[in-house]
Specification:
It is a single chain. The chain has four helices and two strands, in the order ααβααβ. The protein is mainly alpha-helical. A two-stranded parallel ribbon has the order 1-2. α2 packs parallel to α4. It is globular. Belongs to the universal stress protein A family. This is UspA domain-containing protein.
Length: 105
């Protein structure tokens, strides 16, 4: 496949805007800044935290063993950001809920 004419930055902008609308509605009551940056995520987020009031990151909840092997952007942000950080977990379908004895939390 030829991706030479693909606009990945625009696709990311659209997905981010869609996520914001899903969470905060079409007319959010808070000021949200989004930016698409071609950079490793952890250093870019730490840099952004210098001028942010709050940094919100998603935690994939892969567990301690995966964190030890792979590292974690959200963990790095919690440990090194200049502003407060909120790490949120993604919603899971009820069938994968740890309360039902499935999944790994």
């Amino acid at each position: 496949m030829d991706y030479s004419d693909a606009d990945f930055d625009e696709e990311e902008r659209q997905q981010t805007q869609q996520a914001i609308v899903e969470v905060l509605g079409a007319d959010p009551q808070v000021y949200v800044v989004t930016e698409v940056i071609q950079s490793p995520p952890a250093p870019a987020l730490i840099d952004a935290s210098a001028t942010a009031d709050l940094l919100v990151v998603e935690s994939h909840g892969r567990g301690a063993f995966a964190l030890m092997l792979l590292g974690s952007v959200s963990l790095h942000c919690v440990q090194h950001a200049i502003c407060p950080v909120v790490a949120v977990r993604p919603r899971r379908p009820p069938a994968l809920s740890p309360a039902m004895g499935l999944g790994q939390g």
